[in-house]
Amino acid sequence: MDLHVIAEAVRARTSLPFTDRDAERILAAILTSEDIWRIIDLSDVPVMALCQALREMGKAGWLEFAGERIRLTPEGRGLIQGAGIAPALELRCPRCGGRGVELGPVAPIAEKFREIAKSRPEAIQDYDQGYVTEESTLYRIAFLWARGDLAGKELLVLGDDDLVSLAAALTGAPKRVVMLDIDERLVGFVREVARGEGLQVEALQHDLREPLPAGLLSAFDTFFCDPTESLRGFLAFAGRGISALKGPGGAGYMGLTRREASLSKWRAIQRELLERGAVLTDLRDDFHDYVNWPYIETMRSWEHLPVKRVPGRDEPWYRSALIRIELVEAPKVANERLEGDIFTDPEAATT
Amino acid sequence: MDLHVIAEAVRARTSLPFTDRDAERILAAILTSEDIWRIIDLSDVPVMALCQALREMGKAGWLEFAGERIRLTPEGRGLIQGAGIAPALELRCPRCGGRGVELGPVAPIAEKFREIAKSRPEAIQDYDQGYVTEESTLYRIAFLWARGDLAGKELLVLGDDDLVSLAAALTGAPKRVVMLDIDERLVGFVREVARGEGLQVEALQHDLREPLPAGLLSAFDTFFCDPTESLRGFLAFAGRGISALKGPGGAGYMGLTRREASLSKWRAIQRELLERGAVLTDLRDDFHDYVNWPYIETMRSWEHLPVKRVPGRDEPWYRSALIRIELVEAPKVANERLEGDIFTDPEAATT
User: Which CATH class is domain B104-327?
Assistant: First the structure.
């Protein structure tokens, strides 16, 4: 019994991409923590495949599930020693949270933004919502600023439960800020805050499955979106963003997670982004920490977890990378209507 | 006269990729500094194209070259104001140097490594050498460790004027460390240090234009290389690394700069890496700072600089990104001999 057998079993039972290396990453994580959420976080293996792998490792006698803990058996420890697997190690810089940037000129608006965010609409499952911490949003704005994509620029935010539009507008740096969201609660909230604070934000209710309104096409310097993680959904949202850019030199930002996207899916996404005329200029993993949403016990992966514990609201395990692209060619994206469910695919875990 | 006219002139006179956005980045940098090396660093525009753009902006009456300084004229300031260009802003975290990681378990070997590096062979122009700061090498090792690519792993370093092999071996974490270099001075230095310090490093003299020795094919978990920046040279070095990996789950690290590679070249490189079976998992810009090499006044771009000043040895302006790839499929790379000059292409500035 070795990693390869586990990996084959996971692939056979789930049809999900899963490598020997994924099995190794899970064991490395278990060497560091017995807690399911830390194991998910440290291993960076998509949750649905990870759940199956834990079960296979349990069946193989490597793990035991003791109440809320996941423990290595002597057999499991022997396997790890034989394979030379080292404990997972986090070396995140404590000052910047691993993001590499300072808040700089964004720092003065941090308190105001946190105050505003206190009365934000709660995340709901209908639209696959789940927002990042206020700190993550503030660092995003700093990152855009440092890349020359904020000050004096026209910014479009596609889907905005993270309140990026408000944080951007609070800095006073952008030339224009437009946000689109399907959720009327969010559109109403952003409008109300903007009115109260005297901020220039245009908030529009829009379903991104529909084509972008003509007035928003080829009209922006920068877009931001944190798409749903299905391959089709991700590419649809990113495509809308790309078609909103003025042309070469325009920049796009996206959040992309490992929790619901295998590296095979990451690769498919990257190939398509390049195909559409863009280059990746930055890819900073674990840039975004998510606040745990209230529907955790009804999310798709909950019943698959081998041990169950409801994580605290501010106990991040769901993280995502920040990707920046820049157009080097005229974009190749069709502004067409998308039919059907764009939220679910086999790796979806939190829908 | 606007950015677009400058961009067209640069493209027409140099045949190099250059966008309106590149012209904007140069002006944003000049708003922040009058020094040529800071402008190169802040603008992230390839040096050869940047030199031409500065000349065009001078001809247009936007800039004046005063001794060692580059200054905006009133006309230049007017243009910038009209276009709404904001000053370039660096928000690099001062603790981690923008890298996002802590040295952690690498910290205890830092002093020893710096001591060893004091007697390293100096960079020579023949092989397009130019090494990163010792700090950059140490952070690289920490990054590999945090990604699970160091401890218990077999590591191949392709071209090693940065002394990655010695830093890795000093930690005692890898299972095996092999370094290849064309430069006998470096191979001898690494062998001598390894013998003196009792480190397990296999150092082999090898020209990467030649196929990899059969014993090194499909034999490693991780490779590291900081290739020459020509498109052909970069892909050749990266391809050797990929063919040395055991298979899916194997990881590769590369340095890639903006100084001698346009975003168009970055895109071509990324497309090819994906094509070969890999995904990009990390892309951290400005991870590596380079020590200024002794041949700066004979490098290709020197005569093109509109103002000339020899930068201090520890005054970094040449930086590069750290890219991590992981194989998700069996690699598609031919282990063939490469003929001719792999160092120069139109964007080469420091060869």
Answer: alpha beta
